[in-house]
Amino acid sequence: MPSQSDCPFLSAQRTHSIGLVVKQIDNPYFAQIMRGVYDEASTHGYIVLLGSSELSPEKEKSSVDALLQQWVDGLVISPLQGEDADLSYLGLLLQNGPPVVFLEKVPNFSASTVDIQNTQAAKEAVSYLIELGHREIVYLSGPSYSMHNRERLEGFRQAMESHGLPIPSHAIYPAGVYIEDGYKAGKALFSQFGRSFTAFFCFNDLVAIGAMNAIFEQGLSVPEDVSVIGFDNIAFCDFARVPLTSVRVPTYEMGKQAARLLFRQIQDPELSSPESIVLKAELVQRKSCASPKTY
Fold first, then answer.
1. pLDDT confidence band for 8 (50 / 70 / 90)
2. CA angle, corner 274, sides to 100 and 150, nearest 5?
3. What is the C-alpha separation between 274 and 101, in angstroms, rounded?
4. Where in the chain is the domain with CATH 3.40.50.2300?
5. Contact indicator for 203, 150 with CB cutoff of 8 Å
6. Residue 48: strand pairing partners
7. Distance set, CA 54 to CA 19, 26, 59, 148, 150 (Å)
8. Which residues contact 118 (CB under 8 A, 6 or more apart)?
């Protein structure tokens, strides 16, 4: 990592470039974040250099190192936070590198962040299912490296517990981030537990779309037999076989706000207090949820 004394951002010299490191280059969630960062950067006359960890802690660090070698004036990072992720390099980066903004909370680090109200949004989504009459709800969870997954799981727990509903072991079922992950998890649930549930709350929309495919493969219908809620509200939600109810995440605004925080730090290196922006996420109701059948 270049030393602080060598970094051009500390002098009048600037490269008029910033770095952006995301988790997955092909995830629609990050596409809108990228667009927000790019649009805000262009208003400042900056270019954006892109890196992606592709879910690998080693690739994340090498992407950051490569961007530092390009002497970027600042970095926006969506960091992996799994048990196998060594975040010590982020501490060194915050101490010795250019300005940094994180795209989610990173415990024990004092840095500017842009995030959403994951726990509250998840609680509201699951409460919506409960208000429709669902009692057997499964959370198809995301990856362990995601702080957002942990927060959404907490929202799921809070909703179930606040309504006095039990959470059996299979009600929190590991899936992942992609369509295939949701499909495999849904298929495994039907194989192991039959039709012992009436609704899926999913880590993201891709998982939800995969889960719906597993439901259809069982000869069942959405929402008549199983209701499904996704998270992120990607554009495809409107065009799914059954339009998907989802939690809208303001991803474009997240990108713009992250870039604005970063440029504030670039323009005033003496800013010492980290800033935190938390944006609201809201449920968008479509046609994938209904009251459960009564027999």
1. very low
2. 80
3. 9
4. 4-116+250-280, 118-248
5. no
6. 18
7. 16, 9, 7, 17, 19
8. 148, 151, 152, 155, 281
Rounded Cα distance, 143 and 55, in Å: 10
Residue 284's H or E segment, with its range, is strand 282-284
Q: List residues bridging with 278 in a β-sheet.
A: 115
The CATH number of 118-248 is 3.40.50.2300
Q: Which CATH number fits domain 4-116+250-280: 3.40.50.11270, 1.10.287.180, 3.40.50.2300, 2.40.10.10?
A: 3.40.50.2300
Containing 173, the helix (H) or strand (E) segment is strand 172-174
H helical segments located in the chain: 28-43, 57-69, 88-96, 118-132, 147-162, 179-193, 205-217, 251-267
- Beta-carbon contacts of residue 275 (< 8 Å; ≥ 6 apart): 112, 261, 264
pLDDT in tens, 126-177: 999 999 999 999 999 999 889 999 999 999 999 999 999 999 999 999 999 9
The whole-angstrom separation of Cα 244 and Cα 236 is: 9
> 0.85 exceeded by the pTM?
yes
Tens-digit pLDDT profile for residues 79-123: 999 777 788 999 999 999 999 999 998 888 899 999 999 999 999
